[in-house]
Amino acid sequence: MIEYKAFEMHSHTFHSDGTFSVESLCQACKVRELDGVALTDHNTMSGWEEITPALEEQTLPVIRGIEWTTFYGHMLVIGADRYVDWRLATPENIDRFTEAISAANGAVGIAHPFSLGSPFCTGCHWEFRVKEWKNIHYVEVWSGPFPLFEPYNEPGFQMWTDLLNQGHRLAASCGIDWHENDLEENHHMPVTCLGVENGEVSTRTAREALRAGRVYVTGGPALDFQIEQSGKRHGLGAAVNSGAATLLWGVDQTARTSQWNSFGLIPRRVAFIQNGGEVLSIELSGQEKEKGQTAYELWPGWIRLELYGDYQGRADQLLGFTSPIYVEKD
Hints:
Blueprint: E1 2-11, H1 22-31, E2 36-39, H2 53-58, E3 62-70, E4 73-78, H3 94-103, E5 107-110, E6 138-143, H4 153-165, E7 171-175, E8 191-197, H5 203-212, E9 215-218, E10 222-229, E11 232-234, E12 239-241, E13 243-252, E14 266-274, E15 277-283, E16 289-298, E17 301-311, E18 314-322, E19 325-328
Parallel strand pairs: 1-2, 2-3, 5-6, 6-7, 12-19
Antiparallel strand pairs: 1-8, 3-4, 4-5, 8-9, 9-18, 10-11, 10-13, 13-16, 14-15, 14-17, 17-18, 17-19
């Protein structure tokens, strides 16, 4: 059984350029009502030594990761079985390295692809020339506190959509790139929700969820999107056939409400996006928990759910979205 859990997927400690200790990071994530946190220090795994069973029992599970930090882009590597050296990666040979990470069972994510580069942040802007996208599992399309305030998130979101339209299968994540416990009350923290086996939060289950595309991002309510076809339900990251199907959706406003309900976030509608275009919009009634289903004729490509509503006085803002379900020609 797959159960979705809330994660911060991009964080740093004083083992690289953060001010958190591993323990203080975990404590801060517990306060934010997270189920897990990915420790992704720059080019080092030394912080892993501080992850103890006692710490995880007192706070929350920590996902082992690393942020490859190069002159040509940053890359999140989650749960690899062995270390893959980043130092010789170049824009032209990056496929060789992502293939090695994938062979080591790691999940590979592009971090903040449109972040400002030099001279503001050398190497933060993605410049690797990927040819084998099968070895990239997700794109961090929302970076920082709630992404409405980050201008480089819109092109990152569009990059992901364009890659899907080119036939590549990638999930999407968010991460506030947390370096220190400086989030003020007016800083809203979105989360990446991963569909983990039997609700188990571990490095293994998080890695497998990322690789399988069982991922959605939300600034508030929990989301659900499945497709029923020929009596069987298919979740995020799965593939279905073109033709007749039933779209199943859900919005749960009781999830982690203390973390977002003071920001004027009001869900108003869910939209279904197929191959980059909105094909269906359903107005919400305002109930705490809503779900529905509708018959729909699918065509080849992909389809995802997006949540829209009010945010701090602005209407029809993107509040959350799922990774796709893929549609194959019948």
